[in-house]
Amino acid sequence: MTTESSLQFTGLLKPMVAGAMAGTTVDLFFYPIDTLKTRLQSREGFIASGGFKGVYKGLGSVAVGSAPGAALFFTTYEYCKRSIIPNAFPSLSSPMVHMISASLGEVAACLVRVPTEVVKQRQQTATYGSSTSSAKALQLAIQQGGFKSLYQGFGITILREVPFSLLQFPLYEKLKSQAAERRSLLSSDQLPPHVSAICGSIAGSTAAALTTPLDVVKTRIMLTKECDGARIGIPESFARVYREEGWSAFWKGVIPRTIWIGLGGAVFLGVYEVSIQQLGSII
């Protein structure tokens, strides 16, 4: 490995490790709120999907996929932001670089995130019964729909995550820049962790609220078992939600989603920034 490539790898190792730590922390800590949000969005309804009982169902799937998914996102995001996008399009503004980099990061992360999300949401709503383990839910999903069923909802997840990132990360970077300017700092990287956390919370909650309709449709698609015989395409799912429940259904779960991602954004990006700073003295 050359000196240049070694330095490049070292530069990516920090966001990889920090992203894994941040993603795991948030997913485990705020998991019950995510469960309540998913049950509110399910077609069967909140009570039929489990209500307030068993809010940690599906945690095993998240524990497995959280770290690699978050690590893959931040590694891709940082590499694109620092190198690929600026070199390919040197005239692009900083917000555009952040938006494109975040979108590419989300696409990469979804390769890991979607299968674990399918298993997780089916456990959260007792799709396979109230006592099904993560391993059993994975087995049943494959038996009923093949391995491709683990990527059921991949398209709508991308359609949700890309707009989310287009809103969240440029806003996050902008808020940090403004905070650094007010404190007369040379770089937003010098901000105290709690300031970065507040910026992350504002950016996350804003993006979460605005993308709730896409999240509702994603949940419906992932919870549809292929053996049910229902079509699970994106246009059909949007039409079905509107036809059966009206426009208000697209905002189901908006409050827990906004709270979860708002608080999660503070912890996620706060832990990420702290980890980056701490890893700087190690890596």
UniProtKB/TrEMBL annotation:
It is found in: Mitochondrion inner membrane. Its main location: mitochondrion. It comes from the Eukaryota. It is a multi-pass membrane protein. GO terms for cellular component: mitochondrial inner membrane. Solcar repeats lie at residues 10-83, 93-178, 191-278. It holds the Pfam family Mito_carr. Keywords: Membrane, Mitochondrion, Mitochondrion inner membrane, Repeat, Transmembrane, Transmembrane helix, Transport. InterPro entries: MCP_dom_sf (IPR023395), MCP_transmembrane (IPR018108). The keyword Transport applies. Gene3D superfamilies: Mitochondrial carrier domain. Belongs to the mitochondrial carrier (TC 2.A.29) family. This is S-adenosylmethionine transporter. It comes from Puccinia triticina (isolate 1-1 / race 1 (BBBD)).
